Amino acid sequence: MSPEALLNAATLADLKRGYLESTDAYTCLCCGERVEKGVVYPVGDRLLEAGRYIQQHIAEAHGSVFAHLVALDKQAHGLSDLQRRLLTLFYEGKSDEEIKALLGAGSLSTIRNHRFILREKERQARIFLAIMELLHERQSTGGATGAHGGKRSRSGKAPADQRSADDAILARYFPYGPEGPVQHFSTAPLKHKRMIAAVVAQRFTPGRTYSEREVNAVLEPIVEDYVLLRRCLVEFGYLKRLPDGSQYWRGDVDEEGMKQVDRRKELKRLAREAKTEGGVYQVRNTRNGMVWIGVTPNFRTLNGQRFQLEMGSHRSRELQQAWNEYGPDAFVFEPLEALEVPETGPFDRDAALRKLKQKWLRELQPFGSRGYNLPSELEEETP
User: Fold this and answer.
1) Is the domain 279-377 a CATH 3.40.1440.10 member?
2) How many C-beta neighbours within 10 Å does residue 223 have?
3) Is the Cα dihedral 4, 225, 189, 27 positive or negative?
4) Source organism's superkingdom (predicted)?
């Protein structure tokens, strides 16, 4: 699942803490890193349970949830570059006087006016969220409601045709009805995925054969990760297919076969669909050839590093000073090596990234006149 799809699936509470929580894992909203529950993760000389480890991962890999969210493209949050910079400075605790000096603003009243505009956006956003939630609640309950939000009989009891528990679950994933798009599919528990697949299967005509392209044409408009949904339809028996995948058709579910599915293996296989590529990268000064070596769990989040430099808040003081001196046009971001992730078995991604960074620090020696890393970042090799 892409970081964009993860953000779309997140609630406000999820966005603030920076990760999604499912029955068996935590998933980082910044890069898609998946941390399984029930596993103890080594970090230096400490051992952290999964909940603490995902927080540690976000702090080390992304700085903060705020920094990642504010660095997203304008399409994600609707903020202008000036508003993003102002919010970053507010978040850092800068005074209006300091912000005026940093931005070269004409007067303190200009900064205060920006604060007022941002508070207005916040107020409007809260009201808009309330409006949309009320709309979704109305649609999910299937029609008009009374003054207190639901139909009631004279006795005060819910009517006999009230939605079943399964219908209530499905309403969360089909907020616009069973013929509409599917939301939050990739992060749904396995049993909910099966319920969703049963509904989606009704969109295929019994007795008709479909090519893979035709199946994708049905699924792609309704769900972000249509490949995952297609595989679930097949795994759960709602679609049958030839071994070479050339033809699909609607089929009956083999209940006995489904009882024998290894749930844990299934969850791990579905999680592999959401893999992201990370590794070591360099920020290279094209004017003098000096470089800074960094690591990321997801190369697609490098724009966040660029934004931190533009805001003057990058964790490398040496790189930040060079950026301020030469300007952003003098620097390029270049991947050096992708991290190889094993298909099976335990894997500490953060430890592997640190090891990979050490390899490139020793190879390039980006210290002093050769780069912006500090010699203290180079750890002693263990025999």
Assistant:
1) yes
2) 21
3) negative
4) Bacteria
